[in-house]
Amino acid sequence: MNVAASGVWQKNPALAWREIDDETVIISPGESVMHELNNTGSLVWRNIDGQRKAEDLARLLVEQYDVTQEVALADTLSLLAELSTRKLLLPAEEGAAR
Amino acid sequence: MRLSSHDSSLLAAASRRYRGFNSSQEKRLSIQVEREPTEMAASHEFVCDFEGARVEADKGNAQFTGVRHEYALDSLLRMYLSWALLPQDGFLLHAASVARNGKAYIFVGRSGAGKSTVASLSPRGTVLTDEISLLKRVNGEWRAFGTPFWGEFKADGSNTSAPVAGIFRLIQARENRIERLRPADLLKALLPCVLFFSPNVGDHERLLQILIGAIRGISGFHLYFRKNRSFWEVLPS
Q1: What is d(CA A9, CA A51) in angstroms, rounded to the nearest whole number?
Q2: Which residue of A21, A32, A34 is in closest CB contact with B184?
Q3: pLDDT (tens digit per residue) in B40-85
Q4: Is the CB of B198 inside 8 Å of chain A's CB atoms?
């Protein structure tokens, strides 16, 4: 799946999640599946708010970690694609319409 | 809990199976059990189906219908309790609980991990359950309660409780040792072993909140153990 740098996402509202020790645990009640995010994934997840673009999220990684914008953006797009494939994220406009 | 039924044979079987846990004085968990299935007439806070049987529940009251055998009753009861414990800061866990020196040791693991083995290697009368543990925070203290759910041990659970000494994730090995788990790792170890059936996201959020409280208040360990009584020597007293 290709994710655009200008794409805007929001968390699937049908999920339960908690952060603990810089990690995030996400539960999909419908599927009884647990997902885990590490510290960088958690930073991205925490800031997915239906308004920030993928490139904005990547910028947060640059501010927090010793990484270039180019690498951060590639990692962010990869993560967003993965989260979208697992239905943990929805395109913001689709989420707004729910 | 308080079980009642219009079907005397069903009630007799249920009373026999859950003796020690079933009280006519209990007011918090009142359960009506019937053999005949019914169509759901109203919406309920919690609904769950199991092989033609159904639990419909609201705060403090539950109705089990379509219960044709003890196995269905047992399954519905697990489903219901997993939800009914939420307001009490409690949850059910695939784990054996063994009381020792006034503390409860929780041995967690999926089928085949060694829960029944650990129970069978423990002195008679000390096993709260070899299959499904009930953990609940009471006055700020995490306690393990016996349950009427058992696995290979084939013995009634014990309707008592004890403060939790620790949670131990079972890993069969050639040596006995323990390894402290970070809270996040304990949570990830617990989640696959928690019994929970509600499809409601709000219930899952509440469950996560309770589990976070549990891992903050209870020490967790990997327990690498040999299949003999010697594993007790490496457990914290």
Answers
A1: 7
A2: A21
A3: 667 899 999 999 999 999 988 899 999 998 889 999 999 999 999 9
A4: yes
Contacts of B215 in chain A (CB under 8 A): 20
Residue B196's closest CA among A25, A14, A27?
Answer: A27
Task: Dump pLDDT digits (tens) for A82-96.
Answer: 999 999 999 987 544
- Number of cross-chain residue pairs from A and B with Cβ atoms under 8 Å apart: 42
CA–CA–CA angle B119, B121, B127 (5° rounding): 35
| CATH 3.40.50 placement within chain B | 90-234
Structural domains of chain A, ranges and CATH numbers in brackets:
11-90 (1.10.10.1150)
B199–A23 CB contact, under 8 Å: no
Nearest to B82 by CA among B200, B173, B183: B200
State the pTM of this model.
Answer: 0.89
* Third-level CATH fold of B90-234: Rossmann fold (3.40.50)
For chain B, residues with pLDDT lower than 70 are 27, 40-41, 152-158
Smallest Cβ distance to A20: which of B183, B192, B207?
B183
Name the residue among A13, A21, A30 with its Cβ closest to that of B183. A21
